[in-house]
Structure formats: structure tokens, C-alpha cells
Amino acid sequence: MQLVLAAKYIGAAIATIGLIGADDKTSNM
Question: Where are the membrane-spanning stretches?
Fold first, then answer.
């Protein structure tokens, strides 16, 4: 149960960070 919530939360956070800091952090991967 916690894994699903964590995965969803982390996924949203990564998506937001990716959208916001796309230009700043191009070498994220």
C-alpha cells in the first residue's frame, strides 16, 4: 500500500521537477 502511494508521489514529483527544471537540469538521467 505504501509503495503505491510512494510511487505515485515520487512520480508526480519527478514529473513536476522535470517540467520545471527541464532547462536547468538537462543531465538528470
Answer: none
For residue 18, what are the contacts with CB-CB under 8 A and spacing of at least 6?
28
> pLDDT at position 27, please?
54
Number of domains in the chain: 1
pLDDT for the residue 4 = 92
**Distance (Å, whole) CA 25 – CA 29:** 9
Rounded Cα–Cα distance for residues 7 and 21 (Å): 20
Does the reported pTM lie above 0.90? no
